Amino acid sequence: MPKEKKTSVSSKPERLVLDYMSKQNRPYSVTDIVSNLHAAVTKTECQRAVNSLVEKELLTSKTFGKQTIYVVRQDTIETVNPDELASIDKRLAQLRENIAEQKSRQKQLSTELASLNSALTTEEIEHRLIVLTSKNEQSKEHLLLLQSGSQLVPVEERQRVTREMETHRKLWAQRRRLFKDMFSTVTENLPGKPKELLEELDISLDDPIDININPRDLLST
Prior knowledge:
Layout lengths: L11 H13 L5 H7 L6 H13 L3 E6 L2 E6 L9 H37 L3 H27 L6 H32 L7 H7 L14 H6 L1
Antiparallel strand pairs: 1-2
Helix pairs in contact: 1-3, 2-3
């Protein structure tokens, strides 16, 4: 039980300081008290209050060099009896268990929410179904054309491609012939076989290709 004091707190600064010191139950200097009370009392008022409270044996002081520290007397603090302490401990255990359950529930709900947020809405599903149905119909039509043997490339396009291929084939043949003539002239007096030089330079003459092939024959294959 706390030691009963016959002294009373008479001034407002004393009440403020004593209430604060009792609640905190930690050592403070006058400067700390004034700062923590957000200037509710001046430094002079605080100094007078702590001096008075020390005289009334409600605070105790300890001087370290030039600084004095004040703390509430421990024998004035109301203590909790064992039964009350046991009840508080039990309540704390229940609260901790409840917190653990709530955290687990929160985690479960967060997982469910993330799953719902990642799922498509009804409108999105309906739109997706329309798009896929349309693509499916297009694929069916294309498949039917292939199965029927119909020519999917228009005649005009086939003719244009044939003309372009013929033009490029002629250019290729001319340049191939020109290179062979130049290469033959350059290597005429060189030692070794021209074929070996071609292999060393990694040059291919496209000999396996028939330069007289008809491009229409390629398109028909």
